[in-house]
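Second attempt. The first submission of Signal recognition particle protein had a stray character pasted in from the spreadsheet, which I only caught after the job came back as garbage. Lesson logged: always re-copy from the clean sequence file. Corrected sequence (295 aa) follows.
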Amino acid sequence: MFENLTDRLERSFKILKGEGRITEINVAETLKEIRRALIDADVNYKVAKTFTDEVKQKALGANVLTAVKPGQMMTKIVRDELALLMGGTASDINLDGRPAVILIAGLQGSGKTTFSGKLANLLKSKRSRSVLLVAGDVYRPAAIEQLKILGQQVGVEVYTEEGNKNPVEIAENAIKYARGKNINTVIVDTAGRLAVDEAMMEEIAAVKRAVKPSETLFVVDAMTGQDAVNTAREFNERLDYDGVVLTKLDGDTRGGAAISIRSVVNKPLKFISSGEKMDALQVFHPERMADRILG
Ligand code: GDP
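This time the job returned cleanly.
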């Protein structure tokens, strides 16, 4: 995903790895090239500008002009700043509550249902949780079917109420059901729309008010680039969610959303999904991602 960005950054550091004395002009050129590379990777302009301003401050503070290996020094500064930009350290999800309730929100097609299955799988296999998946997308029978199939694949029960069109009721009943069966984690999948609309937002907000989830996750398709960041902002204004899940990182994405979503929305990126298989889900680690970007 980051091939192009990695290449471009490497080339920009070469300006500092050449022979002779490093000048302020060399540093400025490097920073300009880093900024361009980020913008071409679909990082929002303002984020790229603030980022390179920050790198410049750090570079001057570290006396890059007189350093023995200015190229290496700059690489390290950029790596550390990228990790910070993406949130610094990994953020876990909150599983407080009996049961812990995790609410999943996002546009239709973003990968919500697939992610719900993957998260159930991860919590069950890696964290020994007992999980109930809840089909809250009451408008699309296909979505309910899809969740049932995923539940079967990962060995997790799926709660549905055929004919009930009230997602708040379904979620509340599912939680009661989980309590009765001693299931400690409930994942509620919700209905999305093709674009942000008030009715959808109100519906998800109503479910959130009713079930008071310990964790609300917003799912977004990385391939939508800067739109991903804009949608993340709109959902956050309305839902004040706890974390972001970026999907389809295996697809044709330049990676900008992964880099900039944290600083634009001020909510941590918690999971990245990179495939349709149930185990294609990873906890997001900013530092590992920064290493990957620098190649
Ligand atoms: P929902 O409408 O938000 O519930 O989205 P779905 O979970 O139904 O996903 C929409 C499509 O994207 C489906 O065809 C999924 O198989 C596919 N999909 C979901 N996550 C990923 C991913 O990480 N990578 C790829 N390549 N496809 C994905």
